[in-house]
Specification:
Structural class: mainly alpha
Mean pLDDT: 79
Order of helices and strands: HH
Number of helices: 2
């Protein structure tokens, strides 16, 4: 499913779908990926930690 090279703080599904062209190869032109649409509509199911914000 997800690539093992997923950087820390990144969603494995988002990363895999953005960088693996094989996933979307089976789709017709201008056809949306159902997994990507579900991910956009329902939000990312993974809790990705944000970098600590420092003012100073």
């Amino acid at each position: 499913m997800a690539a093992t090279q997923t950087p820390p703080g990144e969603c494995p599904q988002c990363w895999e779908h953005a960088h693996n062209k094989r996933i979307h190869r089976r789709l017709k032109p201008r056809q949306d990926c159902p997994q990507c649409v579900d991910h956009m509509v329902n939000g990312c199911p993974y809790l990705t930690p944000k970098k600590e914000s420092r003012w100073w």
